[in-house]
TrEMBL record:
Coiled coil: none annotated. It comes from Sorangium cellulosum. The keyword Metal-binding does not apply. Residues 1-29 form the signal peptide. InterPro entries: 6-blade_b-propeller_TolB-like, Vgb, WD40/YVTN_repeat-like_dom_sf. It comes from the Bacteria. This is SMP-30/Gluconolactonase/LRE-like region domain-containing protein. Keywords: Signal. SUPFAM superfamilies: Calcium-dependent phosphotriesterase, NHL repeat.
Length: 554
């Protein structure tokens, strides 16, 4: 599995937006919401609290949502002000304290019934969390590490390392037999572990009492026991299964869209299933009937591109955990491609641009730039020699990439030619890229500048500043009249910039953009983007509201 940690350094950038100058007042376009997505930016760990409500961790949304189990209404939210920072899994302690894990920072956090917050650092990648029947607390590492730990419920004593090299032990539960049960993400099996038989084992198969309970899964993500002591598992394939612990036989209870993440039971043995890729919560009743408690859909719309297909406009949206296709006129979903971490050639796209009949993706999480054929679903090119790429376009046959790099001073706009990579411009946080013939423009999210990098095929050194003072500009596109459209995330506006005069006007306000990034990710996060179709329709992705706006310019 390829992973890049360079994006962790991006959190060190301090961005200072400046006031926008010289903006003219014009009649504004009236945007409409073409696509409305999920109410959460992905749903991960779930648990029924002592108050009977469902608590849902949203890693990408940087929040824990409190949900009414009957109506599906979100009745409360815990966010950064409550110490929430990229929560992945959660549980409740015997005293009613809420505990959660922060995947990237590596912290375990406790919120006492009084509201007091304490936290303890374990290691990057801390993910599943569960209590034993006797009040012992256990966590494991995934993706950024691989291990099992016992943690002091008071978060005072140092964590005790139990085992390493498990293969990514994910959503766990304590069994009625006194063993710890959990899925091994990379091995397609569910195991049980006698935690007291392991003493920091390097090879858990040899040095721990570890037993395979069931196998043959695609990517098992989490397990839970119901009140009758029956083990259940969710698979990233979309299957919800009941496992006979004695025989290893499995019974499929429900088949949901792929990308399942976790599950929880209430006192009546209703099962609640979460989706990391679609953000839904589905309730599965004991009789197998399913109900969408929270609907799914877009969870983090970033890059947007429009292709003419069969006489109609297809809008492709990079949703970080998936690529989604919509009808440009109606917003009807036309398809979704879900990459699976470590198992797919396709990486989760954060930016998307049109490349003839193909698409170009950048994926900062895995430091990949790819060219994709939507007609066949094939990855035509894959480039892994960029560090935290934030955007990518085709320019005069070459790839041009907005590369954040591994730290301050490394960010640049780079052109990949047959003779090697060439730096076109050094920037602080390169974001939007726009192309028209032999002209290339780039936005710097940190400085608020729009720069022309290439003019008539000639690289400008230094680049020409076309506009300045914008508040966190991200996605850009060239409109049919040759002007630049720029998504200004800091002020939630779409701007029009005349590249020849630098004149700026506002096209639309109050866009649902500007989702705050979690610690350790890149400043652009979802990359709020804009695209223009051949008919003149303008599409803007709204990462904060999980929407796609559609409207026409002035």
């Amino acid at each position: 599995m390829r992973r890049s940690f360079a994006f962790v350094l991006a959190g060190a950038f301090v961005l200072a937006g400046t006031a926008l100058l010289g903006v003219s007042s014009t009649a504004l376009a009236k945007p409409s919401v073409l696509v409305e997505g999920a109410r959460l930016h992905g749903s991960n760990g779930v648990h029924v609290g002592p108050d009977g409500r469902l608590y849902v961790a949203s890693f990408l949304g940087n929040e824990i949502a409190v949900v009414n189990r009957k109506s599906g209404a979100i009745v409360g939210r815990l966010d950064a002000s409550d110490g929430v920072d990229g929560p992945d899994d959660l549980t409740f302690g015997p005293d009613g304290s809420l505990y959660w894990t922060s995947l990237i920072t590596g912290n375990v956090v406790r919120r006492a019934p009084s509201g007091d917050i304490t936290q303890q650092h374990v290691a990057p990648g801390v993910n599943p969390i569960t209590f034993s029947d006797t009040g012992r607390l256990f966590v494991a590492l995934d993706f950024f590490g691989d291990g099992l730990y016992e943690v002091d419920p008071d978060l005072a004593a140092p964590p005790r390392h139990i085992a390493s090299n498990l293969g990514f032990l994910n959503g766990m539960d304590w069994g009625p037999d006194g063993r710890l049960y959990g899925p091994i993400w990379t091995q397609g099996r569910v195991v049980s572990i006698d935690v007291d038989s392991c003493t920091g084992a390097v090879d858990p198969e040899v040095e721990c009492d570890l037993q395979t309970v069931a196998d043959g899964f695609f990517i098992p993500a989490a397990v839970k026991f119901d009140s009758l002591g029956r083990l259940h598992a969710v698979d990233q394939s979309g299957e919800v299964a009941r496992i006979d612990v004695a025989t290893g036989d499995t019974e499929i209870l429900a088949v949901l869209p792929p990308g399942l993440d976790n599950l929880a039971f209430d006192a009546q043995d209703n099962l609640y299933v979460s989706s990391a890729t679609d953000g839904f919560i589905v309730r599965v009743a004991p009789n197998g009937q399913t109900r969408a408690l929270l609907p799914g859909g877009l969870i983090m719309p970033g890059g947007v591109a429009v292709l003419s297909e069969g006489g109609a406009e297809s809008v492709y949206v990079g949703d970080l955990a998936s690529l989604r296709r919509f009808d440009g006129g109606t917003g009807e979903p036309l398809g979704v491609e879900r990459p699976f971490l470590g198992f797919s050639d396709l990486h989760g796209p954060s930016s998307v641009s049109a490349d003839g009949a193909a698409l170009i993706f950048s994926a900062w999480f895995s430091s990949a730039v790819q060219v994709y054929d939507p007609a066949t679903g094939a990855v035509l090119e894959s480039h892994d020699d960029f560090v935290s790429p934030l955007n990518a376009v085709r320019f005069q046959g070459d790839l041009v990439v907005a590369e954040l790099g591994a730290g301050p001073g490394a960010a640049r706009v780079v052109r990949k030619t047959s003779g090697g990579s060439v730096t076109l411009a050094s920037m602080t946080v390169p974001s939007g890229l726009a192309v028209s013939g032999g002209d290339l423009w780039a936005a710097d999210r940190a400085t608020g500048a729009i720069l022309q990098v290439v003019s008539g095929g000639v690289t400008l050194s230094p680049p020409l500043e076309v506009a300045a003072g914008l508040d966190r500009p991200e996605g850009m596109a060239v409109d049919l009249d040759g002007s630049l459209l720029v998504v200004e995330t800091g002020k939630r506006r779409l701007l029009r910039v005349d590249p020849s005069t630098g004149a700026i006007s506002v096209v639309a306000r109050r866009l649902e953009v500007g989702l705050d990034a979690i610690t350790g990710t890149v400043p652009t996060y979802a990359m709020s983007s804009v695209a223009v179709s051949a008919s003149g329709a303008i599409y803007v992705s709204g990462d904060k509201g999980n929407v796609v706006h559609r409207f026409r310019g002035n």
